[in-house]
Amino acid sequence: MRVGGLQRWTSIDFPGRLAAVVFCQGCPWRCSYCHNPELLDASAQPQIAWEEVLDFLRGRCGLLDGVVFSGGEPLLQTALPAAMQEVRALGFEVGLHTSGMYPDRLAQVLPLVDWIGLDIKAPWQRLDTVTASRGGAARVLESLLRVLLSGVAHECRTTWSPELFPLHELHDLAEELAGLGVRRWALQQCRGGSLPDPARWRAELALFAARFEDFEFRAA
């Protein structure tokens, strides 16, 4: 495992759990609003050895509930399934944050995962532009369908501002996700991005919330 960082305690990255977050080095996408640009380069020197992470976790047995693999894109690393198995062997639950770029690798780890945060970066026709890559839409949709069929607890989340794509396309995406069976959707404000005026935005949020069993807006 190439580890770009370790957050030793969090109460927000794994719903209902106290967890540590392992930040995996490397990502195939180049989203303009990326929160962790230092993790993009897969060839960068790891910041902490995997054995050091395991040593830390051994000392937190009974104190933490779970471990979240985030990134970067964790599924970029072929060592991820073995790392998840080691974490489970210590008695921790496993969370995964993923962009859905690798549906076959996602299928491989689904039996090892207790919760998934799946980023739906944009409507399918906008995905390549937002991620500065090609061919992601079909892969992300396949990943979404695999997660929905798996029964693994999850949320989908989308980061948005009008500078990325129009509001009506965000509504179209929300309607499609709800139609596919997504029950929990988190809408996240893009850092540095604008929003409609407060009165209109409250009305828009009410429309989003009406489509989902569980909806949350996360301001920047």
Automatic annotation (TrEMBL):
<dbReference type="Pfam" id="PF04055">
    <property type="entry name" value="Radical_SAM"/>
</dbReference>
<keyword id="KW-0004">4Fe-4S</keyword>
<dbReference type="InterPro" id="IPR007197">
    <property type="entry name" value="rSAM"/>
</dbReference>
<dbReference type="InterPro" id="IPR013785">
    <property type="entry name" value="Aldolase_TIM"/>
</dbReference>
<dbReference type="InterPro" id="IPR058240">
    <property type="entry name" value="rSAM_sf"/>
</dbReference>
<keyword id="KW-0949">S-adenosyl-L-methionine</keyword>
<feature type="domain" description="Radical SAM core">
    <location>
        <begin position="13"/>
        <end position="220"/>
    </location>
</feature>
<keyword id="KW-0411">Iron-sulfur</keyword>
<keyword id="KW-0479">Metal-binding</keyword>
<dbReference type="InterPro" id="IPR012840">
    <property type="entry name" value="NrdG2"/>
</dbReference>
<protein>
    <submittedName>
        <fullName>Anaerobic ribonucleoside-triphosphate reductase activating protein</fullName>
    </submittedName>
</protein>
<dbReference type="InterPro" id="IPR034457">
    <property type="entry name" value="Organic_radical-activating"/>
</dbReference>
<keyword id="KW-0408">Iron</keyword>
